[in-house]
Input
Amino acid sequence: MSKARKLEVVAVALAVLCLALFVIATYYVFFVRIGKYYIGCDAGCLTVDHRPVPVLPMTYFQSSSNEIQWTDAAVSNGGGWIVAIPLWAPFVLCLVVAALAHLRARKPAPGACRKCGYDLTGNVTGRCPECGT
Output
């Protein structure tokens, strides 16, 4: 398998993962606490949250209709930051990478027939013996 084909497979797999996370994050809230950070999905976004918040369990999973609301008091006690990346952005990026890798993998090698990819090394007739072009 060529490098372009491997890149195409990985990009498509990541695009499917982003699409699945987007669908899940549209209906559910999921965060994992890693140290002082909360990393998860909420409202169709991948979110990294670093705020002084009340201590929650290491992982929580709730329906968005019953989601946890951060209070202004928790935010004002020392600030913090939130980075939210809409999951459609990496989905589109992965699809573009997969499309470019697919086009690169389909490009015939130098000295090959443009139509079927047959190796024309040593061919003096100028015609492809495989497809006739």
The helical segments are 3-27, 72-76, 88-106.
